[in-house]
Amino acid sequence: MTLERHKYDVLVIGAGGAGLRAAVEARESGLRVAIICKSLFGKAHTVMAEGGAAASMGNVNDKDSWMVHFRDTMRGGKFLNHYRMAELHAKESPDRIWELETWGALFDRTKEGKISQRNFGGHEYPRLAHVGDRTGLELIRTMQQKIVQLQQKDGRETGDMESGIKVFAELTITDILKEGGKVAGAYGYWRESGEEVLFEAPAVVIATGGVGKTFKITSNSWEGTGDGHALALKAGANLVDMEFLQFHPTGMVWPPSVRGILVTESVRGEGGVLTNNLGERFMFKYIPDVFKDKYADNEAEADRWYTDQDNNRRPPELLPRDEVARAINSEVKAGRGTEHGGVFLDVSKRIPADVIKKRLPSMWHQFYELAGVDITKEPMEVGPTCHYVMGGVEVEPDTAAAVGVPGLFAAGEVAGGMHGSNRLGGNSLSDLLVFGRRAGMGAAAYVKSVTAVAVSDASIKAAAARIETPFTNSGGENAYSLHAELQEITHNLVGIIRTKTELADAINKIADIRKRIENVSVAGDRLFNPGFHLSFDLDNMLLVAESTAKSAIVREESRGGHTRDDFPTMDPKWRTLNNISSFNGKEVVVKQQGLPPMPNELFDLFDIHELEKYMSKEETARGGVKL
Question: Which candidate in 27, 229, 268, 564 is catalytic?
Fold first, then answer.
């Protein structure tokens, strides 16, 4: 078999919002760029971000600003966010949205003709720029068109539209290759034929998205197998705070064939209310002390907020996602759930049918076609679904460079630090744009400062042998069976509510699967062989699950997307510490690392009494630091 070889300046693994924005930036810096897409070009998980992109443009409420957005993001993450990432995100998001509009994005408009912005959980003001409930789809459509525009420009100048930027669709990367401690390229194979491909490039941007398929119930599509997290670990990078997984509070629960499919937070942003099987609007019982000054404790005030936001507190349905997911979980466990193990979400009593179909067209169609429910007339059944991972590759905020691996960059969901312990809805799409651009800039600057190194024959031989391993193994373990076992372990032992005993059990069981995966064998050949693909996905998911469980057992507190039943409150000591996961070739090792303290100018944006709810007395007394 002849090895297919390519040389580029920047290799982008992942064709969602972050990957495409990185590719655009690198190409506009004059570099040759390859985009690797695991599935079809345009079929990225970005399209599942339905509600909107958070940016403090102030189009609906001019009191909004980057400072308010920064405060909301830090509060949502329970102050475990990397302050610099949250700062950059809040400051740069408006420019990224306006830029997207100049590239052809068609956002919904206000009566004045400005980009419309809607309410979302955890955001003080209407902040999400949106296209109905299909915002992610519009983002991907616009970014794809921008890629095509750049290719057309190259075509006019060189006669070859793919001379400067090329998309390699349906291709899986199995290894990031290094020479002399620096990135030299990547190795993979075409999913259709199994034929191997070598990419030589001094810079690699990982933008592979999330890890949802590690769990039994998830909103993620089949691609979300933690590929980027695992590739980074095996290349020598670190993962930060992998214990923090976001279980979106509202996924479909019935029928079983659609369990876990996302129900956008826009439904609650447009006025949808959550009730249990007794008809009680239960969220008023679950407002944490740290949020009681901002959220209504009675229905009358909550309802008034929709027409008078300046003089009323927000409805508790719009609490951050971690709070709502735990509340739903508690109601179901207490026997107050629906017949199918969820709760009710009803928007039909708040707004007219024609408005629902205009503002939430995808949701209306999704429930009507898949569940036989008309959301303009009746409530939906919803429950938590594994949706997003806050943990990810440890990066330098300004350049998105992976710490410890020269030439490696990460952006989007695969990168950690930006969202702390919990992501606010809407911050994902703007995160993709802000840090996708910064990753492209960082990669371009790096490439221009170094000399590319050729990949050695030894590295190629090792990568090729790894791809052949499933066909030469004779152990008889089945990848599908092991994947099902892993999903049961994570669902039952590393889910929304965790304990030390269950986490220890999970770690032991994951280690057992780690041994058994060495005996996974695949029948047939490489051609159109899904078992072949899963054998690599499973290895990635095991590394993710191990990182999550080992980080979760160490963090003896409850914060954001990590809830310990045996340590039910936040601990100020843990607010200052990140869990850092690394891979020594045999197992994941977790250590603690201090979180960089906020500088004075950001620290002073908060009321000291609010900070006292999260920080120790010593921290609040010390204040911010001078930079």
Answer: 268
267, 285 contact by CB (below 8 A): no
Which are the contacts of 211, defined by CB distance < 8 A and separation ≥ 6? 220, 224, 225, 226, 229, 245, 389, 541, 544
**What is residue 444's three-state secondary structure?**
helix
The pair of structure tokens assigned to 534 is 């899963």
Q: Which is nearest to 324 in space by CA: 498, 120, 507, 181?
A: 120
Burial of 339 (0-12, 13-18, 19+ CB in 10 A): exposed
Judge contact between 367 and 382, C-beta under 8 A: no
Question: What is the pLDDT, as a whole number, of residue 362?
Answer: 86
Please classify residue 289 by burial: count the beta carbons closer than 10 Å to its beta carbon, then call 0-12 exposed, 13-18 middle and 19+ buried: exposed
- The first and second tokens of residue 137, run together, are 């789809």
248 is catalytic: yes
Among this protein's residues, is 387 annotated catalytic? no
Both structure tokens of 267: 């439904």
Which pLDDT belongs to residue 1?
67
Q: By C-alpha distance, which of 134, 231, 139 is closest to 185?
A: 231
Nearest Cα neighbor of 183 from 206, 162, 163 is 206
Rounded to 10 degrees, what is the CA torsion of 474, 214, 238, 143?
Answer: 110
Which stretches of the chain drop beneath a pLDDT of 70? 1
Catalytic residue from among 21, 89, 248, 321: 248
99 contacts 249 by C-beta, under 8 angstroms: no
3-class state of residue 356 by DSSP:
helix
Helices 530-554 and 457-472 cross at an angle (nearest 10°) of 100
Q: What is the token pair recorded at 174? A: 């199995």
**Rounded distance, CA 146 to CA 423, Å?**
28
What is the rounded CA–CA span in Å between residue 23 and residue 178? 21
* Pairing status of strand 497-498 against strand 563-564: parallel
The model carries a pTM of 0.92
* Separation in Å, CA 352 to CA 327, 578, 604: 28, 46, 44
Cα separation of the two ends of the chain: 56
Element containing residue 301 per DSSP (H, E): helix 299-304
What's the CA gap between 67 and 188, in Å, rounded? Answer: 43
Secondary structure letter of residue 184 according to DSSP: E
Residue 569 tokens, joined: 């409150």
| Phi, psi values for residue 589, rounded to 5° | -115, 130
